[in-house]
Amino acid sequence: MTTLRILLALTLGVLMAGVIVVGGERFYKPSRAQKSGYSKDLNELRAKFNSDRGKVRLLMLLSPS
Fold first, then answer.
1. 26 with 20: CB under 8 angstroms?
2. Is residue 15 part of a domain?
3. Residue-range definition of the domain harbouring residue 18
4. What pTM value is reported for the model?
């Protein structure tokens, strides 16, 4: 009986996670800046980075591979 309860709880957990992941996309509305895509001009990044002088800043360069 205990194994059946554990299996049932795991099955319900997986189903609920799937509903949250799939259903969450329906309610997500990107901002106007996100719709326009990424800027290819590094001067915009440099200006934003320099405007935060005196604050803790972190710049990460990520590779898709």
1. no
2. yes
3. 1-28
4. 0.37
